[in-house]
Amino acid sequence: MIYTTNAVEALNRSLRKIIKTRGSFPNDEAALKLLYLAIKNAGVHWRRAIEWTGAMGQFAIQFGDRFPASSN
What is the pTM of this model? Predict the structure, then answer.
């Protein structure tokens, strides 16, 4: 939640690496497909890297009614 800049920069770095190693594409659709798959695969590594359960409990105590009771 806090370090979003690092995640964005990591994604940009991985996309640049994929485009650079591939070289050229027959059309724009091929490049978009490759980028889509790269973003989809990168999302696997972002699944709740930090345990937020304890922090969310403290937020509920500190902020009471302003903090939602359940996360959707």
Answer: 0.53
Distance CA 59, CA 36 (A): 35
Across 45-56, b (16+ Cβ under 10 Å) vs e yields eeeeeeeeeeee
| Burial class of residue 2, CB neighbours in 10 A (0-12, 13-18, 19+) | exposed
> Which structure tokens are listed for 11?
């994604």
Residue 17 corresponds to which tokens in the numbers above? 């690496």
Per this entry, what is the length of the chain?
72
Question: How does pLDDT run across 9-41, given as a tens digit for each residue?
Answer: 888 898 999 889 888 889 999 999 999 998 888
d(CA 22, CA 60): 48
